[in-house]
Design a protein that fits this description.
Length: 142
């Protein structure tokens, strides 16, 4: 897609995705945000309906339960995850994190197995990760 803005650290993330031996966990909120951005591009005339549908089909295929060439895995929302996200927001109100960030942190905290590493360059989110003992990786620090 040619209508996007490169952010610092994106090349490092691409390298990590191409080399990882572990699944990259995607939340339904992230998927929804991507689709929302794509539909915004469609409304702005930056992509055509056919391309929009193709991209969304590929995204669903890449994050589905079937084996793909990419190591993505779509997470299910755990029970009471919204309540935990609310608690995280309230307990860490001094940090500038939004509701989606709090929801992602809550999803990670509720994972039954070993917690994954959050990828974020947002310093407020990093501080909350430290506070609630979630490991993180900042792709902009490399």
């Amino acid at each position: 897609m040619k209508h996007h803005q490169e952010e610092m650290g994106i090349l490092q993330i691409r390298r990590l995705v191409s080399r990882t031996a572990f699944p990259i966990l995607i939340s339904p909120m992230t998927s929804l945000e991507v689709i929302g951005k794509l539909t915004q591009f469609f409304r702005q005339g930056l992509i055509k309906r056919k391309n929009l549908n193709t991209i969304i089909t590929l995204l669903k295929k890449e994050t589905g339960t079937k084996t793909t060439i990419r190591p993505f895995e779509m997470l299910e929302l755990p029970d009471n995850v919204f309540r935990l996200a609310e608690t995280i927001l309230l307990e860490h109100a001094k940090f500038a994190i939004g509701s989606n960030d709090a929801l992602h942190l809550a999803i990670v905290k509720k994972l039954p197995l070993e917690q994954p590493i959050m990828v974020t360059s947002d310093q407020s989110l990093q501080k909350v990760c430290e506070s609630i003992q979630i490991s993180f990786y900042d792709p902009e620090m490399e």
